[in-house]
């Protein structure tokens, strides 16, 4: 089996295939002139679909209930993806099936080579062929309901972008005016494309448009979009067998309530995970806070844990030993939230004394105290590059501001909503601000423009964005967490706990292997864990028996560990049966007076 990027070898044959791995430019011709999916001349060999070794036998039309032609052509594609060209040639000859016809091969090549006029002609005008009776036009068969103008728009948009990349602004403007605009597509999209004409450099173009250029993956992505509009019996979607196998694994994972391993399940057998390998047991209690613990956060590499609360201190623990590395105590009131820098070297603390402080997390020294806000600082998030951070405040002014590492404010969004919590997508494209009422505000973090607002119809607690940048988790004070698609704005899942609080800030987050779970605390002190895929509540854990479980944080590098923080002045570390057996025992908490975590 060849490695990714290694050139295909013929494995004993030089016969080219048009839908091979990578769809490389040298695949200019199809295997034969037979139509897609049609049989070639019968081959009288053992195992062929014509006689199967018996002269009077009928062709087999199914494979365990599946269409024989579909299975064979998908196998042909998979063999080519794997680099087994000789085996694919043998299968094609023995079965009598071709992967695809010359028309499909020509269209694929036209898109990948940037031959836009030819691609449009093959899609909509067809090719001229000599038939038995005169001349006929042959073209690709589109799926029912496909808007041809949409497909034209995609092709011409790519053409426009590549001209801009070449700094050929004149021709790009002509394409915009004479080829894109007459298609009457989305006006806002046309305005956006028009704004790209003002980009001063190719790099600026790519950043603003989130496009990787002609030499990147844009042409292949375009081909994938176009092929989704073409009849799959004519043009099999790319890597179809791999997609089907991935769906099998995904189905097994979605049915396994306690799947919490990074490695995917084997295809050799049905998959299930044991509950004993799931973090449902407290292996350690950290009791060094002299007040309620309001927030707890693992660093991005999972090696450190920070906790903060009503006593005004922030404790940083070494996850390997659970020894306290630093005590950040220079706060005049309770600390409601902490935020780690991406590299774990710095931390921002958000305090009720109306200050946000930037700390060196290694030495415990204050790097900068931001000017006093008019209300408590409620939250903070870092930009993915670690060069700036955004604070949220519960005041109507300067409630959403971005600062550099010197503490200089570089941007103020100037909105009037009071911010309760914040989240930035890992790719740096979106900033989500949650106000202290019922609304979330989604900004483009690059342009800083507001993309949309949503009324969540309940008082809100926290927001969190998944590592794949797709999902937003909104926790509400009524005990319900909602999973949203950031692009479509659709509500996908609802996770309702039995505890319907209305007063305190309770934080929720994603967690587990591949973020397969949703976890939240509750005003009754319980920890709730749901399966993200099917929405099923799989655990209700008695976490903190004196007041709220205010915050939870799942270790990003250890799926078998999460932490919870509560009004009982403790941070609990949760893990699985194996870790519990290895634990040296729990630590006893101090007896202290409780305080409220209400803002």
TrEMBL record:
Keywords: Repeat, WD repeat. InterPro entries: CTLH_C, LisH, WD40/YVTN_repeat-like_dom_sf, WD40_repeat_dom_sf, WD40_rpt, WD_repeat-ST_regulator. Residues 107-171 form the CTLH domain. The keyword Nucleus does not apply. It comes from the Eukaryota. Residues 7-24, 31-54 have a biased composition (Polar residues). GO terms for biological process: proteasome-mediated ubiquitin-dependent protein catabolic process. WD repeats lie at residues 286-327, 328-369. It holds the Pfam family WD40. Residues 1-61 are annotated as: Disordered. Involved in the proteasome-dependent degradation of fructose-1,6-bisphosphatase. This is WD domain-containing protein. It comes from Amylocarpus encephaloides.
